[in-house]
Amino acid sequence: MDEGYIAIALDDRRYFDLAVNLALSLHRCDTRPVSVIVDRAFQPTAAEAALFDQIIPAAADPILRGAMNKARLLDLTPYDRTLYVDADCLLFSSRIELFWHRYRGAPFVVEGHRQSSGPAFACSLGEKDAAALCRDFGLPYLTVFNAGVMYFERGEMAQAVFDKVKALHAGPDRDRVSYTYKHAGEYADEPYFAVALASLGIPPAEPPITARLQVTTPNVIEAAMDLDTGDLRLVKQPPGGTPQLWSGVLCHFCGLAPMETYFDLSDRLRTEAGFPKMVRTQFRPVVLTATQHREGPPG
Asked: Using CA atoms, how far apart are residues 176 and 174, in angstroms rounded to an integer?
């Protein structure tokens, strides 16, 4: 297939429930195919299966666990041009077409910033020192980004990125590059991609914060999210910082926060499509944002 969206819903039925919400939002705004990666034994309902052009069964990998399953995306995607989207995202606007056109021909694209000092990928589970990683790996900067959305095209460069990520995770520098994440044996994926991308000379896309592909919810203090108008604007205030207006087309509800907003929007999508509403009590917030978390460059 030429191009399409892919999500990962491994290890827990609830991730597939989120992927259903994502698929409903994607179909509302785009006609491109949507695929999802699931455990081999997983059986969706007929109505759920109809939302996806391909349901891709994947065997459990004893090494690449949790978020590190993203390192397998090139092996599993059916598309030549892939937009990977975390299951806890929703698409608000058909303006995503602009990004498909903008990124065409690029081997690997993420939105973020270049960072060579200070804490990077900081959350309540850990953080990395950008200067130390740059020094240890001979890099001018890290490609720092949120891995909830990644674009890549099948080819030598994307292969090199994923191979580098796997090699870093499997090698002696595993703990130097990243930190353990959520569950035993799992590692945060973003630091591996940050080092891999920078080492291969792939800088992040750095659009204005008011014209983003992905907007994330950490540090949000006020928001306008309208599925009908496509309005996605978040006022975000990092600890000790000043409020900033972010806007884009894909909202990444990190940890499903703000949860009531996420559930209200997903229930709206599900009701329109004739699906049962979310069972909200099955979900609990996982707050991973630390005081040092930031999405933009210093200053």
From this structure: 6
